[in-house]
Amino acid sequence: MDVKSRNYLLMNRQALENDIKTSYIMDRMISDEVLTLQEEERVKQQNTRKERAAMLINIILTKDNNSYRSFYNALLHEGYRDLAALLQDGIPAVSSGNRKSSMDGMTSYDCFPGGVHWISVGKQDKAGLLIKLQNLCSRLEHDSAFSQRPPLNIEEAKDRLRLLMLRKYPRSLLVLDDIWDSWVLKAFDNQCQVLITSRDRSVTDAVAGNKYEVHVESGLAHEKGLEILSLFVNMKISDLPEQANSLVRECKGSPLVISLIGALLRDFPSRWEYYLRQLQNKQFRRIRKSSSYDYEALDEAMSISVEQLDDNYKDYYKDLSILPKDVKVPTKVLCILWDMETEEVEDILQEFVNKSLLFCDRNGKSFHYYLHDLQLDFLTEKNRNQLQDLHKNIVNQYKKYYKLNTPVLSQEDCMYWYNFLAYHMAGAKMQQELRDLMFSLDWIKAKTELVGPAHLIHEYVEYSSVLDQKDSTVRENFQEFLSLNGHLLGRQPFPDIIQLGLCQPETSEVYQQARLHAQRETGTFYLEWINKKSLKNLYRLVVRPHRDAVYHACFSKDRQRIASCGADKTLQVFKAESGERLLEINAHDDEILCCAFSADGEFVATCSSDKKVKVWNSRTGQCRCVYEEHSEQVNCCQFNNKSGQYRLATCSNDTFIKIWDLNEKYCRNTMIGHENSVNHCRFSPNDEYVASCSTDGTVKLWEARSGNELKSIEIKDFFKNADEQPDDVEVLVKCCSWSRNGNMILVVAKNKLLLFDTNTCGLLTQVIVSHHSTIQYCDFCPGDELVAVALSHCSVELWNIKSLSKVAYCRGHMSWVHCVTFSPDGSLFLTSSDDQTIRIWETKKVCKSSDAVLKSELDVVFHNGEAMILAIYNQKYLQLINGNTDSVIMKTAAQESPISCCCLSEDLKFAAFGQESGTIKVLQLSDGKVLKSWEAYRTSVQRCRFTPDCQTLISSAHDSVIQVWNWQLSECVFLRGHKEAIKDFRLLENSKILSWSFDGTVKVWNITTGSPEKDFACHGGAVLSCAVSPDGSKFSSASADKTAKIWSFESSSVLHELKDHEACVRCCTFSPNNKLLATGDDKGEIRIWDVLTGALLHFCSPVTVDEGEPTHGGWVTDLSFSPDSEMLVSSGGYLKWWNVTTGESLQTFYTNGTNLKSIHVSPNFKVYVTVDNLGILYVLQKF
């Protein structure tokens, strides 16, 4: 197709794609015999009308002039006259006669019958240009009829060339490669068609005629770079040496550099390592020219462009030496740097863009500029001695512009400064300024709110040498603060960073700064965690890379990176040190169940419920291969252990294990033998064997090379009772892990760890890890003594497999732990959970910790300004703790049966506790001596409380009876009447109690006589909570039927039914002024009602929460008003304080764990006590 016709198609392509319907047009083109039926089918396969039109145009562009004419005529006949008019001037002329395929050594194409003439021009002076013109004329004049002496000057040469092109070579193409100056181009301006390549788009301004600009990408894709290298050295891509990948990466996609390196390697095929080293060390001068290139060395090829700039522009270009790599810089940043208006800066930068010294990306109304990596490397090397001053200049200009303020998100340059101000300060060696910035909670708050904590953690690591002037303590304080709170700082609503800082150790610089902020901000509600000294954080980093459950995570072999996957269908790769995200890939169409690094870290494999296995380049995110031979969900994928071989084992619900070779398209081996889903598989350390675990109750060992089954271990045999047959026992074998030498294999099923000898399949040892939860995953530490197990009850345990002892208990996750994996050297291990977090732990630190845990059932008495706390410690002990000093005043001896509940007398003389065995005991607090014991129930005791005179103890269990026990007289009254288990009860005046039950009723009892005085049929569902109004005239009930009600004691009637909740109403409380009722539900929402009218006054909920996040981090479990009825505190997934008048949140306190069952509040509303599901005690005091 003629170039003119082709250009008209390209110029009007968008209008054609938007309007034409292809079916009738293709019919006419097929009848003209310019379109084939196969090509018609390709067009029809496209999904949308616009895509079909685009495909048709693409096909036409590959054809000759006849297809253009046929397409034009089809448009006319089908009523697209306006579109046909756009193409009319491009209709090619009909020519006759035969065309030569070559003309005197010149290249010829159908659209250029006069030939294509190529001249490499480059940077020239007038003498050099004259020689180029003389040579061209000589080539064109070799026919004797035109032979003349060479032209003596440029003007004569220009005229000679014009006559030659007009008379002998009409309709030819002149290709001018590497034009630098417009005066050079004018010498070739002879009204023929010219294709030029140039680094300066302004060179065409001086010549006449139509101009069409073809955009050329600034970089080559990695695979394309390898292809070009392979062509230069005449090798297949698969046969290139291992340095090839690194070389292409170091070339940064530059066609110039890849071509230059390729030409050099063609001449010197043994220098792969040499040229890689020179590129890595930025030794551009040593990459010398090849015979096919015009410049002596790579640095000359880049510097010659800069030398062509006017002197006043060279300084501006030098300023770009300090720009960060791979970053598009907004115009506003350079306006601040040069203290200029936007228009002035854009004019300067356009000069650089025109000369291909800079690239421009238009983003809406604004421009962003960036340098190619090699241009930046060259500038950095050239101006190395001035870099510190250049960095200092940009920092000073920033300080001058912003003074004491910080950029806000609405400003175009905001994100640049938050991401790179510290980089410039470090480059300027401005130590004090960098410390002031990085150790400022204001800066941390602003930056983490915009970009999250990972980048800041990375900066603490990156600039540690600058920040650690005298010692590293302060930097470590801030780094630890961000590492341990990163999962909170990435969520919505954004937490109060001052409140988080107040939870740090008092010796921490973070705490000191937070305290100063809290003192200055007198109108803000802050809390001091006064017993935090006893808490030790055992993990070094917490990250929240996923938006749903994290099913698997693993270290790369060098321990620098972590890959993770989960229910959100994404694969994430991030830095193990900081959590900084390196890759995010929407990898599958369903949940991703497992991921694994290859031994050399080059690839990451993923497998999914979508039945597919995929392998990804771990650095670029490109998909290397997709395997689809499994017919059910794929549960596990594991690479072999040796570098250089890429073998992958996968297992599936289809009962098969498959071995794949990344260099082959299809499965290498399929291992058949399991009778049910295969849950897990692993290569042995020497890669000779594969172990697999199945729901059929077996572990099998296979030969990796042949796929033959070697051994099978019936795990279900170790779970049957004496009278059971093996077939009667169902055992799901979850996971296995090889010892380092391959002689032992660890297997987990249900709640047991089983260790087998791989040679004999004999059982070496077994451990029952837990009676209350199942083991989800296990991993052998590389040292072979430690084993980590992930448990369904949110924790991880480390066991010494030789001594069969538990050496560590790791709390921190708020939901099921799916995975635990050691780093290759065993110094770290990571855990992933349903709570969307990954936690990285230090093995030695964890092994030195204690496993003390408090139960959530506790009692608190506020006495003489102190919080006296009775708590259940490790289920077997009772402790009396002074909450203000965090000191243990009394501790009982270990009890035979676990303690289930406890209570204190108001005078702090006695304590009582109930046990899972049904026994209740009363003890003397002064010495911990048990005074009385009563075998009250056959089931676990749930509640116990003293009456005000301390002589009687009221209790309930998992049944429908309340017991009133006068422990001093050893007399007991039984309150029978409820039909289902008692939920709770509370004391009233005049020897009465109010009780509520799962049967939907509420009753008032006389505890002296044991008879019910009032009976309220309150709800159709279980009554979960009741509250009594301060004046004693009313009570409220909250129910699983999603309603709450207000009742009159006197009339025994319901006053108001409150129906606005969308979930179980779990708690309720009256305000001290009798005017308000607050209710909380399982959706995490709180409502405040008018007691008099039953009207809804306020709905308490954060403005925004992350997708999938419960509003209160879970159920609202407890509520309490302040004495003036103006504030409300609530417990749930964490603690929140609310303004009752407006319904707005005043403060949030994030506990380490979650599921807070209750909140104990001092009478003056200044001290708050609770326990989380990790057993951590919190005594909080209003700041």
Automatic annotation (TrEMBL):
A molecular-function term among this protein's GO annotations: ATP binding
Matching InterPro entries: APAF1_C (IPR041452), Apaf_helical (IPR042197), CARD (IPR001315), DEATH-like_dom_sf (IPR011029), NB-ARC (IPR002182), P-loop_NTPase (IPR027417), Quinoprotein_ADH-like_sf (IPR011047), WD40/YVTN_repeat-like_dom_sf (IPR015943)
WD repeats: 543-584, 585-626, 627-670, 671-712, 810-842, 934-966, 975-1015, 1016-1057, 1058-1099
GO terms for cellular component: cytosol
Domain of life: Eukaryota
CDD domains listed in its UniProt record: WD40
Residues of the CARD domain: 1-90
Principal location listed in the UniProt entry: cytoplasm
Compartments where found: Cytoplasm
Key words, A-Z: Apoptosis, ATP-binding, Cytoplasm, Nucleotide-binding, Repeat, WD repeat
Keyword Isomerase: no
Example of a GO biological process term: apoptotic process
Pfam families reported in the protein's UniProt record: APAF1_C (PF17908), CARD (PF00619), NB-ARC (PF00931), WD40 (PF00400), WHD_APAF1 (PF21296)
Protein's UniProt keywords contain Nucleotide-binding: yes
Protein name: Apoptotic protease-activating factor 1
Name of the gene this protein is made from: APAF1
